[in-house]
Amino acid sequence: MNIADEEEYTGFTFKDAAYEYRLVAFVDLLGFVKYLEERDLKNVLDVLETFHKDMSKESFHERFAKSKYAVQNDDFKVIDPVRLQDRRVTVFSDLVVISYRGTKEYLEWNFKELIDTIHEAQNMILSKGVLLRGGITYEKLYHNERYCVGPGLVRAYYLESKVANFPRIIIDPEISRKSPFNKFCSDHINLHEQDGIWATNEFEAIKQLVEVNEQDLKSPELHEFRANMYIKLKSLNEIIENGIASGVDKVVEKMSWMVPQYNEALVKVTSTLGNDFSIVDPKGEDEFYKTLLAVKKIEI
Q1: What is the residue extent of each domain of the chain?
Q2: Per DSSP, which regions of 34-126 are E strands?
Q3: Which of 46, 60, 254, 291 could be bridged to 117 by S-S, CB 3.0 to 4.6 A?
Q4: 18-200: CATH number
Q5: Are 262 and 298 in contact (CB under 8 A)?
Q6: How many Å apart are CA 46 and CA 291, to the nearest integer?
């Protein structure tokens, strides 16, 4: 069957196909091959379902717009349908490619939404004991419900596989140094610069979140949120210690990179928020909260 026959057979035409500049994120589960070896199929599918759901069905801002927290925030009360049309997602096994059209009018919003969606996915997949790694660029791409192809995909994959190195999603240095992306990066609470590379960094995000919202986080009404901070640190602690214990050089290198950042985040959380869960565990007998309070610094 030649191309002409294929077009007639599927009803799809390539006549108007053209590259366009898009924000492109290539994100995958770090260490997924080892995870496959160690877990049964049910665990594997559970992780993939969490990953795919958080990355592909609704963006972070779409979910937020429907939540009670959006009531006082005009930016999230209405999601422009044009913005939703800008979003394209391709999922395959342990990787997801998300892209947004790079139109000037929506570029900053789309950049924020892409970062926030990925950051939310990082938080959710962390609860499964898995980390993400990826790369984000702004390049030519052809992306629809059937095809994802172009220099943008190649570049994003290169950033993920050759540049990121550690459990983080990095912004292409080729764009983060230039306007307007340099401002987008410096303005976003979930992006931080390290060694000249902007990336989503869980540890810096934890510290900044605590610092910015110190007084609010101490209120009794937010005890669940405070507990979640400790839950996140507990998950990171287990991942790091298990990785170091594996003795695999590449894994140990990645986990060792995380240790000082984890320790700094832990100190920030405990020194600022304390570890008082008496409002939900007045007798101090709940094993869950005892486990959270047992999270300690990691020594290597």
Answers
A1: 18-200, 208-293
A2: 87-92, 95-101
A3: 60
A4: 3.30.70.1230
A5: yes
A6: 24
